[in-house]
Backbone:
């Protein structure tokens, strides 16, 4: 069964190497300038750059594709992204997503005023996906599935044993104001919940986020249960009226 190797990069960003000796898929590439740290991780793990057969961008935000151009050159591998975000990657467009929490809204306001400092080198993607896609061609028993919410073209990598690299579909990082699981930025909040439910329904038990440490399914289920109860109280979710005190 392929293994998931977490490689923390600059600014609490993760990339992952998924696979077995000789054939790995790189998931995300961190901020611009992360290639030296990435190479140190490879050396410590005894992995050669040529062992990486494919680079996968979970979505096209500067903190996930900032070093993608440099890492593709180092590894000599093709790049895969969702078709909805291929043009953003090819043109090096900096997108600052809308905030989904108070802290996220503050950071989004600030980010939109400093986009010139967040630039990254454009990357022409070699492969685009729009639906579930097997990665067996690159030597790894895994598949990609669309998981929109954080962005319209967000994708996740799923392993058959129930592990998934999910980008910013969720977060587990105190930098994001201590919010548990829910990302501070989202283009479609309801789609986040739908994508969470979809991954749980196919048996994912361990989620590897773009920021922070792995999250277990039971934690996500508890979070969902709490969120649903709160949303029902606020009238955002159809259901029975709360009991009178």
Residues:
């Amino acid at each position: 069964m392929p293994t998931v190797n977490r490689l923390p990069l600059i600014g609490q960003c993760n990339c992952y190497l998924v696979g077995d000796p000789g054939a790995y898929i790189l998931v995300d590439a961190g901020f611009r300038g992360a290639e030296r740290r990435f190479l140190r991780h490879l050396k410590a793990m005894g992995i050669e750059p040529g062992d990486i057969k494919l680079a996968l961008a979970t979505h096209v935000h500067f903190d996930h594709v900032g070093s993608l151009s440099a890492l593709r050159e180092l590894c000599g591998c093709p790049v895969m992204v969702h078709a909805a975000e291929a043009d953003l990657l090819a043109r090096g467009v900096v997108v600052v997503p809308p905030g989904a929490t108070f802290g996220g809204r503050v950071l989004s306001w600030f980010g939109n005023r400093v986009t010139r400092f967040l630039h990254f080198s454009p990357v022409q993607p070699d492969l685009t996906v729009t639906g579930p896609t097997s990665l067996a061609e690159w030597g790894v028993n895994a598949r990609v599935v669309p998981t929109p919410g954080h962005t319209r073209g967000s994708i996740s990598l799923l392993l058959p044993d129930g592990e998934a690299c999910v980008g910013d579909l969720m977060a587990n990082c105190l930098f994001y104001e201590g919010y548990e699981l829910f990302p501070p930025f989202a283009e479609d909040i309801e789609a986040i919940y739908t994508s969470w439910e979809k991954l749980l329904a196919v048996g994912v038990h361990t989620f590897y986020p773009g920021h922070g440490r792995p999250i277990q399914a039971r934690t996500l289920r508890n979070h969902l249960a709490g969120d649903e109860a709160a949303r029902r109280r606020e009238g955002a979710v159809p259901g029975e009226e709360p009991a009178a005190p």
Q: What stands out?
A: The two ends are 52 Å apart (CA to CA).
